[in-house]
Amino acid sequence: MPSLRAMNALHPTLFLVLALTAVIALPGCGAMQRHYEAGLILADIRAGEADSRWKRTRPAPERETVEYTGPTGVPRVADLYTPGDEVRSNLVLVHGFTEAGRRDPRLVQFAKTLSRAGFRVLAPEVETLTRMDVSPENIRDVVDAAHWLDARDDGEGVGVAAMSFSVATAVLAALEEDGRPHIGWIVGVGGYYDLVETLTYVTTGYFTEDGERRYQIPRVEGRWVVLLTQLDRVPDADDRRLLDRIARERLADPEAETGPLAERLSPPGRAVYALLTNRDPDRVPDLLAALPDGVRDEIKALNLANRDLSRLQAYLLLVHGRDDDVIPWTQSQALKQAAPRGQAELRLVTGLTHVDVDPGVVGAWRLLRAVNRLLLLRDDPPPTPSSANEP
């Protein structure tokens, strides 16, 4: 049991959560230890690079750069974080949209936090994500990483942790014939199921809950980030340059006047711009139909709503913020419902704005339960069916 002095060093909200945890978890020592670890992990995530009890009491992991090829034969590079003590599980950690890629300071700190918990963490460099480009190619990045990491151990399967738009990539990787035997479970934070509905929310703020249309103010930067992810699929080079300039000017200043730039776009470029500046949810289907073929094909390829998830064998631990202003929480709910029965769980959290954490007491308690479930997956992962048992 932690000392009262040690617990008081934590954030006040987490102190209360840990105090409740200590009472609730008394019947099982292993469960109590996981709950306590979960609280220290949350406090360490909140601390970032600053000192924390987690850093002081757990040996620092070793990081090395590794190069490998997976089933595709494509050369890959990644950072491998090895715990300073026992390796208890293997985890592929996928970075998001960041020019720093696997060396983004936030990802590095998160990887170290997880490695201190006994995870051997592989953080692959996903080149397309470093240039704000989400692509079906990312599926192979995840498959190759899982294949390589699983081969280092006993072949019992690995976990994959992904955030935001990369959650769908992880699920699609687990559906791949050569990914299915290696990906045992997925932790997805702030992901989507139906990409069309997600784009409707990003651009208009409207989403569907229990069959009713609802509105929530979306993050203004969201639409322009989405534009940057699709630039490579716009056929005309001049359009790509103009749209890139529009997106970056609006990201720097949401009130920037970009109308004159938009007037210089060709019809395909103008179709992309029309979707991203639209505010009417009823127009979205027609605007999507008018997009260039490459952009439409990309949306179709990355849309989980088009896939048969009954073949999914990886267990899903989904975490989503009720206050998410980029992807509505109903998307993770829809993903849970589409997964095979009993194979997914959803933890809804207040104070989690997309992937930024600032919970109150209730939110911290729910986050702690989500981290506790991650630690349970570490200690008792679901079995990964062998290829011989695959349908």
Describe the 3D structure.
This protein is α/β, with parallel strands linked by helices. The protein folds into two domains: about 55-195 and about 305-390, Alpha/Beta hydrolase fold, catalytic domain (Rossmann fold, 3-Layer(aba) Sandwich); about 205-300, no CATH class. The protein has helices at about 5-10, 10-25, 30-45, 55, 105-115, 125-130, 135-150, 165-175, 195-205, 220-230, 235-250, 260, 265-275, 285-290, 295-300, 330-340, 360-380, and strands at about 60-70, 75-80, 90-95, 120-125, 160-165, 185-190, 205-210, 210-215, 315-320, 345-350, 350-355, 355. Strands 1-2-4-3-5-6-9-10 form an eight-stranded mixed β-sheet, sandwiched between helices. It has a two-stranded antiparallel sheet with strand order 7-8. Helix 3 crosses helix 17 (about 360-380) and helix 7 packs across helix 8 (about 165-175). The model is unreliable at about 1-30, about 360-365 and about 385-390 (pLDDT under 50).
In terms of DSSP E residues, the strand content is 15-25%
Poorly predicted sequence stretches spanning 5 or more consecutive residues = 1-28, 359-363, 386-391
CATH topology of the largest domain: Rossmann fold
Order of helices and strands: HHHHEEEHEHHEHEHEEHHHHHHEHEEEH
State the helical fraction: 40-55%
InterPro entries: AB_hydrolase_fold
Protein name: Alpha/beta hydrolase
List the helices and strands and how they pair.
Elements: H1 4-8, H2 12-24, H3 29-47, H4 53-57, E1 62-69, E2 75-82, E3 89-93, H5 105-116, E4 119-124, H6 127-130, H7 137-152, E5 158-163, H8 166-175, E6 183-189, H9 195-204, E7 206-209, E8 212-215, H10 220-229, H11 237-252, H12 259-262, H13 267-277, H14 284-289, H15 293-301, E9 315-321, H16 330-338, E10 344-349, E11 352-353, E12 356-357, H17 361-379
Parallel strand pairs: 3-4, 3-5, 5-6, 6-9, 9-10
Antiparallel strand pairs: 1-2, 2-4, 7-8, 11-12
